[in-house]
Write a structure and sequence with these properties.
2 domains; Fructose-1,6-Bisphosphatase, Chain A, domain 1; D-Maltodextrin-Binding Protein, domain 2; five-stranded mixed β-sheet; alpha+beta; binds calcium ion; binds D-MYO-inositol-1-phosphate; globular; 7 helices; about 260 residues
Length: about 260
């Protein structure tokens, strides 16, 4: 079985479990980086299920997960966000996802984002395109910045948010509009599917973007950081090539990688 197929099966099973077990009001079990950065019992249960399935099928692979950290050191590593968009999950908003990526020798080769409440499973394999329900995905092209719908998100810390709000205030007059969906994994898939034209965010964790970054890139988007650097926690910018240049040009002088 391919990595993409295996990741898809595992993300599907985790999604079914989450839908079946989500109570009307999920309880907050713990907080992490700030009082608003929460963990529910089902974040942990989802990651446990995913880890169990990976270990059963491929015991030598390493696993990095949002809730359980790193285990193992194989050439193949699975990168897992058991619920991306936990705050949406908590409130019953339909924008949360199970994200599973597979790395070989440090390069992501397969990615799956299961946006569970919508029943949509985005998949990609490196060099083989990005797919949703049997359709090959292509990001929007030829959209000028002033017509672009741009998704973004915010971190959990007040100091980071102050700068993110400042950057957003500069950007907003120059674009069609902004969307804050609440799941970076899903946002990147939305770029792939042409549901937004671009995305940027500072402060993502690897599990937020490992799968979605490949899906967006395989759909033709440029996914990079500032000045041609790799995308990642400092900054992730994603859009079709022309728009990417305009968005980068607007963001770069704002020094968006700082915190206050
Ligand atoms: C968060 C979501 C959100 C993004 C945050 C992430 P979590 O992940 O992806 O859209 O803005 O930066 O931390 O906490 O829901 O897994
Ligand atoms: Ca996440």
């Amino acid at each position: 079985m391919t990595f993409a197929r295996m990741a898809e099966e595992i993300a599907a099973e985790a999604g079914e479990m989450l839908l079946a077990k989500r109570p009307a009001r999920p309880e907050i079990l713990a907080t992490k980086s700030s009082p608003t950065d929460v963990v529910t019992a089902l974040d942990r249960a989802s990651e446990r299920l995913i880890r169990d399935r990976i270990r059963a099928a491929r015991p030598d692979d390493a696993i990095l997960g949002e809730e359980g950290g790193q285990a193992g050191d194989g050439r193949v590593r699975w990168v897992v966000d058991p619920i991306d968009g936990t705050v949406n999950f908590l409130y019953g908003l339909p924008e949360w996802a199970v994200s599973v990526a597979v790395e070989v020798d440090g390069e992501v080769v397969a990615g799956v984002v299961n946006v569970v409440p919508r029943g949509e499973v985005f998949t990609a394999a490196r060099g083989e395109g990005a797919w949703l329900a049997g359709e090959r995905l292509r990001c929007n092209t030829g959209v000028p910045l002033d017509r672009a719908l741009i998704a973004t998100g915010f971190g959990y810390g007040a100091g980071r948010r102050r700068v993110q709000a400042e950057v957003l205030a500069h950007l907003l007059p120059h674009v069609r509009d902004i969307r804050r969906g609440g799941s970076a994994a899903s946002d990147l898939c939305s770029v792939a599917a042409g549901r937004v034209d671009g995305f940027y965010e500072r402060g993502l964790e690897y599990w937020d973007y490992a799968a979605g970054g490949l899906i967006a890139a395989e759909a033709g988007a440029v996914v990079e950081g500032l000045n041609g650097g790799p995308y990642g926690p400092e900054l992730t910018i994603c859009a079709a090539p022309g728009l990417f240049g305009e968005l980068h040009g607007l963001l770069a002088p704002l020094d968006p990688e700082r915190d206050s």
